[in-house]
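Pasting two entries for a bug report.
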Amino acid sequence: MIPKNEYAPYYAQYIQAIEKNGKSIIENLELAQTAFKKTFENLPVEKQNYAYAEGKWTLKELIQHIIDTERVFCYRALCFSRSDKTSLPGFDEDLFVENAAVDVRNFEDLLEEMAVVRAGTILLYKSFSEEALLRIGVGSGNEMSVRALGYLFSGHQIHHLNIVKERYL
């Protein structure tokens, strides 16, 4: 179990749900991406720009959000793993989605981008030593370990997949 001092309480829902299964960070990254691919690979075209309620993200926007979050947090993991003590800023997830222009993007390109980003995340985590995984840095005003971030990626993706299954499909 990852000690609670390695992440902010907000992230507990993502990290604790994943770490319970007893699988490694890498295994979880691979499993979550497989579930992601299965969920979206045969999605009807009419669902791609669908939002289940006013003010909610479309499925394309949701996928872009997962991609953006993983990129931002991978940068954090890299900095923390290298013992960079710079306090990293937060990011406005709504602003990122708002300015991503996903409505004109090809859906298959989004799916491929997620696969490529996840492959990069897996390679990054394979490069970390056990010592590096335990290093802690500050992002969005909260302390976070490289290890906790590794579980967060899968937990965040699975969280959104559950919402997709409940409210979009």
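Entry 2 (this is the one that rendered wrong in the viewer):
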Amino acid sequence: MGKNPVGNHIRRLRFNHGEMTQQQLADKAGVTRHTIMALEKGKYSPSLELAFRIANAFGLPLEEVFYYGENLQSIENKDGGN
């Protein structure tokens, strides 16, 4: 697959949670800001543990933060890409 099959709503969720910065999310998830940037751009797929830590930082279930596979295109179209 050319494109990363794991998508996410991280950027939108950060803004919906008090305009949380990438650094604030990184601190909550225990990663670097560069990791959050790569996730938002779709250049990196998180480990299962990291995906749960990010979802937990937003107080949401995993499937409300991340999506996978064949649902990717339809969800991106509904959400404007992220």
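Dev reply: Rendering is fixed now. As a check, the viewer should reflect this: The first strand starts at residue 6 and ends at 8.
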